[in-house]
Specification:
CATH topology of the largest domain: Fructose-1,6-Bisphosphatase, Chain A, domain 1
Order of helices and strands: HEEHEEEHEEEEEEHEHEHEEH
Bound molecules: D-MYO-inositol-1-phosphate, calcium ion
Number of domains: 2
Radius of gyration: 18 Å
CATH class of the largest domain: Alpha Beta
Strand order of the largest sheet: 4-3-5-6-7-8-9-10
Number of helices: 7
Largest sheet: 8 strands, mixed
Shape: globular
Distance between the termini: 43 Å
CATH architecture of the largest domain: 2-Layer Sandwich
Length: about 270
């Protein structure tokens, strides 16, 4: 039996705030050092690493029997097969924005069971002063106030958010056809640059839907719970719900009301 997920919320919020202090200290500083990952566009800064190290150290000190997966450091803490609770962390989601001095970036922290079912999620955007949180069965909040998805019922009225993966130059599945398919049908599209925060915007009703491919668990586990707890829906492009993004990392989130229409458009864009 797990303890009540909500009982971990104050700790998880403290982790996000600790990381936010670290990231904000270096925000818009010109001396950031970058290390390339999969391509020259996909890089990590010293601040991504410092943010993750602080979060991991705090979890290890408080819960040495928990497993931790960080985007930058991989598996840490207790072995995955022994731990009943796992933390999945993106220490900066939106590194490109962060390094450009654009305030739309976040710290994403999820607590999941060994099958990756989310128990709680915290997404903190320190430069925007917004902290989103949800615990399973307890609803979703922004800065402590309850949030809900929008009531928009058709694509014609919808603002959708998407994103483009780092492999878009080499992978023919680069989201271009999907953008072309949605563009004539919707009120407008946005590409903000932090998938975790994009999901929170859907949860808060600021946008009506979000889709992206090649998403990793640390990008979306916290945000997906926040959307569901705000009464929204999160699936793959075919409408299947699973704890982790599939091998192609395709995720579709919406207010629920436009989900089928988004699924149909995505299906058609792949020649369906
Ligand atoms: C990226 C952001 C971006 C999304 C990319 C992600 P990172 O995460 O979430 O919005 O389009 O697919 O990889 O690299 O900044 O942690
Ligand atoms: Ca990310
Ligand atoms: Ca990241």
């Amino acid at each position: 039996m797990h303890p009540n997920p909500a009982s971990f919320l104050p700790f998880a919020i403290g982790l996000a705030q600790l990381a936010g202090q670290i990231t904000q200290r270096s925000f818009r500083q010109s001396s950031l050092s970058r290390t390339a990952k999969s391509s020259s566009w996909d890089f990590v800064t010293e601040v991504d690493r410092a943010s993750e190290a602080a979060i991991v150290a705090a979890i290890q000190a408080a819960y040495p029997d928990h497993h931790i997966v960080g985007e930058e450091g991989g598996g840490q803490g207790a072995p995955a097969e022994e731990a009943v609770l796992h933390w999945i962390i993106d220490p900066i989601d939106g590194t490109s924005n962060y390094a450009q001095g654009i305030p739309y970036y976040s710290i994403s922290i999820a607590l999941v069971d060994p099958q990756h079912n989310p128990l709680l999620g915290v997404v903190y955007a320190p430069a925007l002063g917004e902290l989103y949180a949800a615990a399973l069965g307890s609803g979703a909040t922004c800065n402590g106030q309850p949030i809900h998805v929008s009531a928009v019922e058709s694509l014609r009225q919808a603002i959708l958010i998407t994103g483009f993966a780092y492999d878009r130059q080499t992978n023919p599945d680069h989201n271009g056809p999907q953008v072309n398919a949605f563009l004539p049908q919707v009120r407008d599209l946005r590409r903000f640059g932090s998938a975790a925060l994009d999901l929170c915007y859907v949860a808060a009703g600021r946008a009506d839907g979000f889709w992206e491919r090649a998403i990793n668990p640390w990008d979306v586990l916290a945000g997906a719970l926040i959307v569901r707890e705000a009464n929204g829906r999160v699936t793959d492009y075919e409408g299947r719900q699973a704890p982790l993004p599939g091998p192609d990392g395709r995720i579709l989130a919406s207010n629920g009301l436009i989900h089928q229409a988004m699924q149909d458009t995505l299906h058609a864009s792949y020649g369906g």
